[in-house]
Amino acid sequence: MMGFTDLLVIITIIFYFLSTASYFAYLFFQKDYLHRLGIYILGTGFVAHTTLIGTTFMHIGSIPAHNLHQTLSLAGWILAGVFLTFQYRFGLRVLGIFIAPLATFTMIISSRLPITPDRLDESFKSFWLILHVVIIFTGEAAFALACGVGILYLLQEHAIKTKKRGFFFNRLPSLEMLDSTGYACIITGFTMVTIGLLSGFLYARSIWGRFWSWDPKEVWSGIMWLFYAALLHERLVVGWRGRKSAIMSIIGFVVLLFTFLGVNFFLKGHHGDFTQW
């Protein structure tokens, strides 16, 4: 028999999928009502997703990140929330064609994985862990948005350089707007990840007795942080903008994905609980 949480998962996926369809329809037909429909549907899906996360939190008594099923769901929820916030702030409508499908795909994969974790570790109830996971995921969601903006920038730049004014030219914002929005995403992501790493150090100290243990996840998180720190440095000091910044944002997201998933699958460490099957 289908439970309440199962129903919430299905409702969330349906709304995220319908939002994806609306955004792609907006990309093709450029009708304002299609964009409004996409954002409203995504917002409704986010409300259902919030209810799911809250229900799971109350049921298990800790942050829902005990296995890959829960971790992906949490990541998809934060991704949708961060996008809605940036959408309200910057109004970059077409970015929904990148974020809505990503949120949908994340939830579909999550729904196909085992739901019940092997064990419920008391350390997952730590305040520092909750702070660490939520803030880190928020920063990574902002980096995901930066990747999406970077892809849109390269598409628009190519359309301008070819001088054919093809499909994307009239459907994407100006290069200046894309560049400034991508920069805002990176600044936000870098700030949040920095705070998240600091809270992670405090959590590690309280659980394992040391701030740093050279765990593969810690090492790759450091590499990711250094990558985006270098990107910001080059932008502010050397003047990296436009194409270079867009390409680096995309590469940075690939590094992020490996840090988020690849490390736990291919390298052993004490962060493996978050992506156990």
**Separation of termini?**
23 Å
Please estimate the helix content. over 70%
> What composes the largest sheet?
none
Radius of gyration: 19 Å
Order of helices and strands: HHHHHHHH
Proportion of beta-strand residues = under 5%
Low-confidence stretches: none
Count structural domains: 2
Indicate the overall shape: globular
Helices, by number, come to 8
Overall pLDDT: 86
Q: State the total count of DSSP E strands.
A: 0
Structural class designation: mainly alpha
Textual characterization of the structure:
The model has no long low-confidence stretch (mean pLDDT 86). Helix 1 (4-29) packs antiparallel against helix 4, helix 5 packs across helix 8 (243-266) and helix 6 runs antiparallel to helix 7 (216-238). This protein is mainly α. It folds into two domains: 1-114; 126-277, no CATH class. It starts with a helix and ends in an 11-residue tail after the last helix. The radius of gyration is 19 Å and the shape is globular. The chain contains eight helices and no strands. It has helices at 4-29, 32-60, 68-90, 96-111, 127-162, 175-208, 216-238, 243-266.
